[in-house]
What does this fold into?
Amino acid sequence: MSGRRPRGRAARTRRQVPPRRDPPPSCTACRRRFRSINSKVIVMSKPYHFNCLKCSNCQKVVPRDQLKVHQNKFFCAQHAPQGAINAPSEDPKITMEKKVKESFDKIDTNKNGTLDPDEFSKFCEVMGNDLTDWEIDLITRIADQNNDGVITFDEFKRFVLIDPKNIPEDALKKIFNAFDLDGNGTIIQSEFKKIAKYLRVELSKDQIKGIFKSIDTDKSGGISYDEFKKWILK
It folds into this structure.
């Protein structure tokens, strides 16, 4: 009797359903799966086999760097209609990283592979809207994550590509606590003055007072974490 298979509820409880797996990606044109990652190319955010990049007119395979697109159709240079554009052949994320690298190389005027404070401040001046010297220096120090005085490409990439709304809460609190010198939960004007001195930014008393008032929106005489967060993410 012990050799019989269980039936009914007992059999159903023992049977394990294998976890559902997402199907492997397939070519947008032929719907066949890719044998390896090297057989796949991304065009307009969709995967294709290299030999599926064909001209809609002559049906010849077109190298991806020569591919033209018009109204979601591929063409070779010979048969491309008026208004056809070069088809992006890479993943948007990779393309964006290349653009960031090109920007980094332009800013890195001495070509040493890092950005010194002067080089990065020029980038901030171009990208920012009426940023003060104090704000530029603050941004520079935030971007320099390991505090070695220069900004590497990885630090620059993280700084440029990050959405300010996605900055981790603990990172914002860490910055705020560094400015809250006495640890009472608010940044008072005297602490604000020490911060400016630490950042090596020469500000007059009126300038410090003006910046402080613009952040202290509730006019309490101290900058709370919420006010600081709103100012950083503006």
In short: The mean pLDDT is 76. The first helix runs from residue 9 to 14. The chain has three domains: 37-86, 93-162, 166-232.
